[in-house]
Amino acid sequence: MTIWDQFCDTPGKIRDGAHVNRTCNHLAMYKEDIAMMRALGANSYRFSIAWPRVIPLGGKEDPVNEKGVKFYNDVIDECLKHGLTPFVTLYHWDLPLELFNRYGGWLAKDSIVPDFTSYAKLCFERFGDRVKHWLTLNEPWCTAVLGHGIGQFAPGHVSNTEPWIVGHSLMIAHASAAKLYINEFKRVQGGSIGITLNGDWTEPFDESPETQNGLCSRMVCGSDLSREFYGCNTYTTNTIKAVRTDDEFAGYTTMAFDTPDGGLIGKRSQLGWLRDVPWGFRKILNYLYQRYQKPIYMTENDRYPSRRHDKGRVEYYAGYTQALKEAVEIDGVDVRSYFGWSFLDNFEWASGLGPRFGSVYVDYETFERTPKDSARSLMQVSLWASAPADDPPVFPR
């Protein structure tokens, strides 16, 4: 079990009352799903390994679940059978519940780091002969802030100190697992390892010194955390105002979407926090590449659709992939992947099954899959990326 099982069991934590134990049934239908990915034109599949599926109790001395290991071996082999490159995330927020009960999970650095490193080693040993792209953590900010700061995600803690403790533990765990891979596995297996971080471009509301200072407080301060590449999850662009708030996690600034002329920075979506701003996507790609001088793997990018005929999402993909193309071809940014979020409608954490981010519609009663219009438009990215430089296909606009 994971901390999300317990979180879902707590009344009021999941918006629609959904539970992680019944979502899109990928566990039973992975072969059909992978075949559909390939049929739609995908050339890679980013998925996460559930830590408690392979080590149910989580610890370095705890027994391995060989059935869980076999499942991921089968998924990887099925990807390769269909010509899909497996792109694997080691941790996407599903901490083994036992580790949280034993010592507080990510709150206990000296315990969690060796346990996570041992889990990562098992994955490198069992899957690394075929997996050449590894992500240690998905969006550690969400684990630290949403899980331990505002209580929106599991384990649901509200604190102004825990996020910093958890964030530190996460970074040390990432560094430990990455160092292990680079020192002990990379030479033989020939893969690469990094981390994927969430972040959106922020545009100053005006040119005042106060706004510029607020913008600086929102900039990422870091070192070589991403190791061999930068994994980027990004969805939108904000404006920032020099209006002080009590939100420590936003640098005490005001994040918004309005502009000085009374307009909006981009088209609305069905989600309050997301606007369609392709030029902001191009800007963040340039910023990240200039700052870190590392290849960028786009690991999540999307907008929330609600229908099978999702015109707004088709337009979003057209704008964002055109911005990606310009960043690569005009600006010289080294971008090596583009993953939309996500292939299937699925469990969207505290929002439950309501938001349908999938490119493929899932009937949660029958588990029938139906590709949305955006599924086919997204695959134009794959066609463009694999085309000869002198004869690129028509790109969505």
From TrEMBL:
The record's InterPro entries line, in alphabetical order, gives: GH (IPR017853), Glyco_hydro_1 (IPR001360)
One Pfam family, short name: Glyco_hydro_1
Highest taxon listed in the record's lineage: Eukaryota
Q: Report the sequence similarity comment from the record.
A: Belongs to the glycosyl hydrolase 1 family.
User: What is the designated name of this protein?
Assistant: Beta-glucosidase
